[in-house]
Design a protein that fits this description.
The structure holds 2 protein chains of 2 kinds.
Chain A (H helix, E strand, L loop, with lengths): L3 E4 L2 E4 L5 E7 L4 E2 L4 E2 L1 E6 L6 E5 L3 E2 L7 E6 L2 E6 L8 E7 L5 E2 L3 E5 L1
Parallel strand pairs in A: 2-13
Antiparallel strand pairs in A: 1-3, 3-10, 4-5, 6-7, 6-11, 7-8, 9-10, 11-12, 11-13
Chain B lengths: L2 E4 L3 E3 L5 E8 L8 E6 L5 E7 L6 E3 L7 E6 L4 E6 L8 E8 L7 E4 L3 E5 L2
Parallel strand pairs in B: 2-11
Antiparallel strand pairs in B: 1-3, 3-8, 4-5, 4-9, 5-6, 7-8, 9-10, 9-11
The chains are: A mainly beta, B mainly beta.
Chain lengths: ~110, ~120
């Protein structure tokens, strides 16, 4: 099984500042035949199910603000929120879908 | 618009079984696989298994092999997840979650979640 490890576990950022969350997979999730990284990011607010933000490591879903961006390849990935808004307070999870799904432990993002 | 509506909260005793339903709307159910994911208190999201589109084949995580049964009633646009031999560690919110495409492990829509509490 592929193990996903996020850092940090929690993060406090001032409004308008940049937030960066890292995700590392125990195995490569880049599929060589199509050169795609099988890595997604989700946002989960209290009492709600996760919401897909980014797929293929860097493709924003429809309706997701452009302050959210994803980067990385192979085993190391990053979710960046360029200018933190109050509504971005949530727990963020990475997930690999190269094989049967596995998720990171989550990163709790708060306002400083 | 895709909607996944799950059945209500359940309270079960250890050793019992629970069956959670997930009614889909806004798309053709038979064209998409459905995953089941759970989230125990303070724990990460955990994939349990899925039912694939078309042939209805299922696959379970090794952790739940023999305890989880996933079925589909295409006529009712409803999927089901049954977990047996419940123990206290199974207390969690259980989600159905649609695969982005047939055969895909990418999840794009989630149900609202069903809280299952296992306690004597």
């Amino acid at each position: 099984d592929i193990v996903m490890t996020q850092s940090p576990d929690s993060l406090a950022v001032s409004l308008g500042e940049r937030a960066t969350i890292n995700c590392k997979s125990s195995q490569n999730v880049l599929y060589s035949s199509n050169n795609k990284n099988y890595l997604a990011w989700y946002q989960q607010k209290p009492g709600q199910p996760p919401q897909l933000l980014i797929s293929w490591a860097s493709t924003r879903e429809s309706g997701v603000p452009d302050r959210f961006s994803g980067s990385g390849s192979g085993t190391d990935f990053t979710l960046t929120i360029s200018s933190l808004q109050a509504e971005d307070v949530a727990v963020y999870y990475c997930q690999q879908y190269y094989t049967t799904p596995s998720f990171g432990q989550g990163t709790k993002l708060e306002i400083k | 618009q895709v909607h996944l509506v799950q059945s209500g909260a359940e309270a079960k005793e250890p050793g019992a079984s629970v069956k959670v339903s997930c009614k889909a709307s806004g798309y053709t159910v038979s064209s998409y696989a459905m995953h089941w994911v759970r989230q125990a208190p303070g724990q990460r999201l955990e994939w349990m298994g899925w039912i694939n589109a078309g042939n209805g084949n299922t696959k379970q995580s090794q952790k739940f092999q023999g305890r989880v049964t996933i079925t589909r009633d295409t006529s009712a646009s409803t999927d089901y997840m049954e977990l047996s031999s419940l123990r206290s560690e199974d207390t969690a919110v259980y989600y159905c979650a649609r695969a982005h495409a047939s055969g895909s492990y990418l999840i794009d829509y989630w149900g609202q979640g069903t809280l299952v509490t296992v306690s004597s």
